[in-house]
Amino acid sequence: MNETEQEEEVLEEGNEESLPTNHFTETDLREEWRLFLGELRKKEPLIFNAIYGFRLSKKDENTIQVNYPSDTARAEFSKVQGDFFNHFKHKVKHFKIEVIYQMDVALKKEIETKRSLFEKMMEKNPLLKDLDDLLKFDFS
Question: Compositional bias (Acidic residues) at which positions (predicted)?
């Protein structure tokens, strides 16, 4: 059995060298990402909500950079990254793509409540604090 396993490994290595590496553009990448997110929104809304803020960009002919907002989002993406990149490699017929992951805190989306919005306004106009103290605004 060792001989057959070694033969299979040699065949797999030979296949990697002969796989096509066609050119793909940033537009191809973004369009496939958009379509993938559309499908994911229907199938896995939890994962979709975690990764919809990711930014994918083409660094060079064989490298894609994935910017993500948090480690938690990255962990959710790891569940579906194989599906996306496998589909993308077959779609563009480029099988030697490497993926680089980079955290980008600027992508993090925070939910603004009415209270937090009002507090930002109070920083610009301190008289709003006096008005809030006087009228006891309810932001619930």
Answer: 1-16
Distance CA 95, CA 20 (A): 6
Q: What is the pLDDT of residues 79-121, one digit of tens each?
A: 999 999 999 999 999 889 999 999 887 767 666 788 888 888 9
- Asked if 84 contacts 39 with a C-beta cutoff of 8 angstroms, the reply is no
**pLDDT greater than 90 at residue 15:** no
Computed over its alpha carbons, how large is the radius of gyration of the chain? 23
- Listed residue (70, 91, 88) closest to 80, CA to CA: 88
What is the rounded distance in angstroms from the CA atom of residue 76 to the CA atom of residue 105? 16
